[in-house]
Structures are given as C-alpha cells and as structure tokens.
Amino acid sequence: MAQRCKYLQAVVFDWAGTTVDHGSRAPAIVFQEIFRSRGVDITEAQAREPMGMAKRDHIAAIAATPSVDEAWRAKFGQPCGDEDIDAMYADFLPLQKETLRHHCDVITGVSAAVDECRSRGLRIGSSTGYTRELMEIVTNEARRQGYAPDCVLCAEDTPRGRPAPYLLYEAAKQLDVYPLWTVVKVDDTPVGIEAGRNAGCWTVGVTRTGNGVGLSAEEIDALPDDEVRRRCNEAASRLVAAGAHDIIESVADIPDLINEIEERMSRGERPN
Which pTM was predicted? Predict the structure, then answer.
C-alpha cells in the first residue's frame, strides 16, 4: 500500500492537454475556424498562445495580437471590437461543443496516476477555461473512462479566470484544504502555471501531452525521438519562464514527483 502523504493535501489538474485531449487539439481547431470564417486566417501558434484563459478572453487576446489586428483592420477597416468578440464567442460555443465530442479521450496513464494520488490521501480537484456547458460533455466522457475529480471549476465560477488565482481558491474551498502551499497545481499552459504561483501552490508544468507541443499521441509517435525532445524542451522553457517549480511530460509521471515534493517539504521547503 502506498505511503500516505504527510504534507500535501491535494492536486488540482487542468483538463485539455493535461488530463484529456492529448495535445489540447479541440480548442486550437475552433479558434482557428472562428477567425477563418470571418476572412482572417490565424496560425495554430496564434490560436494556442493565450491557451488556458477563459474562452472569451482568449478570443480577445488573439484579436489583440499585432499581426492578427493588422489583418483584421485590413479586412474590416477598423479594429476588432467588443461586439465582434462577442459574436465570435457566440459562434465558438456550439462549434466547440461539437468538436469536443471527438476530443474527450483521457490521456494514457492519467487514471492510474490519479488513483495513486488518492491512495496516498490526496484530494483531486480540477479547473478549466471551458464553460460548465462544455464541461458536461468532457466530464461525462472522462468519468466513463475512469477519471472523475472531486471538483470541477469552470470559467464562469469565479470573477476572473487564469492567471488570477480565484479558481484555485475555490477549489481549495470545495476540497476543504489549506494552506495553499499544501496543494499542487498541474497545468500545460503558462497562464495556468501563473495562476498556481499567484495562489501560492506548488506548480507543475506538463509538456509532451500539452498545448506547448500541441500534437496528438499518434503524431508524436510518428516523430523522431530527438524532435520530440526538442519540442518538449521548448514547451518546458515556456512553462519554467511562467514560474513552474517542476516539469513532467505527462500526468502519468505525477506520483514520483509527489514523492520529491514531499521530501522537499520535510526539509521545510515551501513554494516561493
């Protein structure tokens, strides 16, 4: 039987790219489509850059990117305004809902890793930039595949989404855990890591399965090992720059890291 954690109380996981949807494919596809439908093409990299934000904020961040702003002005003769962003967000929701149905697979190793965390006495929280309506699709499918966190916090559950710490505060409240330095936040996006730091949690960045690499498991398997390492290293660099205390390739690796964090805490270390 696994030894129970002495210091840590909970782990809060992100969803797309962290526990489901290897490569965080679903949102990237839809962000590109809603701009393309208005005659403004954006790259996958531009679609992914603000990943982790609440989705309306994400659309606004893409529109504010200098090259996208220039293309929008060339097309419409004026900058992208609030009404345009609202209209794209309205289009985003039904399209994302349909796309999600094909991107809800739990990432290999996640369910077993979460079970291991629970066996050590850890509570399991989750947060996302998706709305609750969208998450109904994801959580139902994830539960069918063996992954069901103790709480699910969505974009509309707090006044502001990531990088604000409020989703983590609410998760701590619902899980009944404190102080926040006994919580581990696991995320594949820089804004998710920033939220963890802002809340005072241990922060763990995910590379191989996440938004920073942006590839399905099949696409990764088709690449040479050195190319996979290069892409993972690039993703890790962005997550470390955002403040990640640790980096893992997949949530499947979290049990061993929990041991390392427990060891640090036994020496009096705290996330800073």
Answer: 0.91
